[in-house]
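Two proteins follow. First one:
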Amino acid sequence: MSRSLRLSLPPLPAVLLSIASVQCGAAIAKGLFPMLGAAGTASLRIGISALVLAVVVRPRLARLTPAQWRAVVPYGLALGLMNFLFYCALARIPLGLAVTLEFIGPLSLALVGARRWFDFVWVVLAAAGIALIAPWNGQGLDLLGLFFAVAAGACWAVYIVLGQRTATVLPGQRAVAVGMLFAALPVLPFGVAGGSFHALTPHLLLLGSLLALFSSVLPFSLEMQALRTMPTRTFSILMSLEPVAAALSGWLLLHERLTLPQWLAVGCIVLASAGATLTTSRPEPALGAE
């Protein structure tokens, strides 16, 4: 029988601690990039996370039906590609901006089919945020890093859709545990090709374990606990705070400084995300997104 990941915290502190945990994990990841690169860091995180979840959840692969395999395999591939692209962005642009741009994916998904006039307020706010981030003079921010962040957001939107489909045929914890096994497939070849695993040391393995703990295992456990008692709309609004948390984490832990227009961009997209949650039938956020 599969075992659950359990922590005992009220739902609001659990979600806030989850958000803080994810951003601490991103800061650890950024510190590993010089030694392992984005692909090597993503492979290490996903590999250790998959191992931990497999031990704790103990999914019985032999008992999965063909329908469950058809759902969980693309779900896992989308998870891996999303994390890889996000780390590629994080290697080139500040943490706060990477998370802000990535949020455009689920926000766009939430606004698909919007018909009421005030729904388009959120579109305008999101567009203003993008415009404030864009380096119109061709200088400053890394254009490839911006592209990677937006691509990660697109994968996040796909991941949410596939996650909803997978949740109908496979319970949440088993879906993530099995999906994480396939998440390594789109990432591992780049990590191997980059030769980053030759640089692994006990110290780097320890940091990789902390990365998996803060970025996957701990937030996954906390979010699952919170969702048992917290309304999903409240959960979604709280998750909209992630770009602000990322910007603050980048400032405190990585000494990254955002300009005033970039802070305004973060604020615009946070307001757009929270507003879309309140006024549209927003798809449920999938766990383990970053």
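Second one, unrelated to the first:
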Amino acid sequence: MDGIGGDGATVAAPLANWRNDFSKQFQYYLDRSTPHTVHRWLGTLALASIYVLRVYYVQGFYIVSYGLGIYILNLLIGFLSPKIDPEIEALDGASLPTKDSDEFKPFIRRLPEFKFWYAITKAFVVAFVMTFFSVFDVPVFWPILLCYWIVLFVLTMKRQILHMIKYKYIPFSIGKQTYARKKFPGSSGSPRD
């Protein structure tokens, strides 16, 4: 009875150690890439270009591309949406500020930029790997899928933009906000009067 499970444990231990070491190294490089936003997105753009070229040269896998497009659209909506939906919050009595006298509440995304980038990058990697398996090359008439995706994108973005207008939030910050200097009576406007 001593030999039962003994061989399986000796084989599984190095595999578990390797997986643990790989996971730590992968997390280390992910953490190191966090402040390099532009470089991360350029890498993802390069990966997306490779995927598009692969689909173009193979002339197939349109259903995979359609699924990838729907997934990216879903991620984009999460990236553009506030963490706390003002429609639901308005029912509770609290809402985003709509007047200058209201309390300032910063815009916090439902899906942070890093997670947005990571999910899109993983999606392109998975879609690229799927192009090497013919089982995913379902024959479809791609112009219909493209038209349907464009209509879906326009309708979804229209709804999202109307939501932004209604609740007066902008999901992007463009630099640091500057304020006009307050002038005191009797001062010439220089800061050291």
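SUMMARY FIELD: The chain has a mean pLDDT of 83. The chain has one domain: 14-167.
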